[in-house]
UniProtKB/TrEMBL annotation:
Belongs to the AB hydrolase superfamily. Keywords: Hydrolase. This is Esterase/ lipase. Residues 24-127 form the AB hydrolase-1 domain. GO terms for molecular function: hydrolase activity. Signal peptide: none annotated.
Length: 271
């Protein structure tokens, strides 16, 4: 009996390509969402570039729920492996990687492992560590993260309804509801596991090894990532790094400041 061929990572993760531009941009979503979070920027970038999008295994849009193995995805490294698999399976080279939130650090890890795959990194509302230490302001005390994880575990639906307006801009109702729907479709069990991997992580030492040119895009008012984090990343990156701050509320510029985000991405990629 012949063995069933293994399904490609890119297929399992709903990878797709849009546009026919010479330069390729990989748009990578963050915690609790899926590739639809880029819906406002896609038509504006697809006019000039080839866009590649996919969903992480935790996303509610991924059909095969067995892909998200709790024992496997305890750090960002397995995600970086998935990212490199998608890029290689789709025969991409020298891409501009746009990573939102947790995906920014994932892109950094992948760029260290296989720098030839990346031309530029654009890190959107990125953070290498969320918990404060004596010499580092991540934005949260350990007790606050503990409480959040507990709430996700015990009252997930309520947490989604509370978190979305804070993480997005409460004045943008449509975007708040979009993020809330994505979170709820992910499910509480996955969310607990993912939250632990993200909010207890510490990738400060990794950041100092990144040589690929980086553009760091921060929100001026982000409850999850203080402006000082962008300044920290700009200082610590081994390669050339540039910080851009968007005057906005929230953690999702692709939803609430998409025109400015597109402008910054185009400035990096050129053409």
């Amino acid at each position: 009996m012949m063995a069933t061929p293994e399904k490609r990572v890119s297929t399992s993760l709903n990878a797709r390509s849009i546009g026919v531009g010479k330069e390729t941009i990989v748009l990578c979503h963050g915690f609790g969402t899926d590739q639809s979070i880029w819906h406002k920027v896609i038509p504006l970038l697809a006019e000039s570039y080839t866009l590649v999008l996919f969903d992480w295994p935790f996303s509610g849009t991924v059909t095969d729920k067995s892909l998200y193995e709790h024992g496997k995805y305890t750090s960002y490294e397995p995600y970086a492996d998935d990212l490199m698999s998608v890029i290689e399976e789709m025969n991409l080279k020298c891409v501009t990687f746009v990573g939102h939130s947790m995906s920014a650090m994932i892109g950094c890890i992948a760029s260290i492992k296989k720098p030839h795959l990346f031309n530029n990194l654009i890190l959107v509302t990125a953070s290498p560590r969320y918990i404060n230490t004596d010499d580092y302001i991540g934005g949260f005390e350990r007790s606050s993260i503990d409480e959040m994880v507990s709430t996700i575990e015990l009252q997930y639906e309520n947490w989604c309804s509370t978190y979305a307006p804070i993480a997005v801009d409460p004045n943008d109702g449509d975007s708040v509801h979009k993020v809330m729907r994505c979170l709820k479709s992910m499910g509480g069990e996955v969310a607990v596991s993912l939250a632990k991997s993200v909010f207890y992580s510490d990738y400060r030492e990794m950041v100092e090894k990144v040589e690929t040119p980086c553009t760091i895009i921060q929100s001026s008012n982000d409850m999850a990532v203080p402006v000082g984090i962008g300044q920290y990343l700009e200082k610590k990156m081994k390669g050339v790094a540039t910080l851009e701050i968007i005057d906005m509320i929230g953690h999702f510029p692709q939803l609430t400041a998409h025109l400015k985000l597109v402008e910054l991405v185009k400035a990096v990629v050129g053409i």
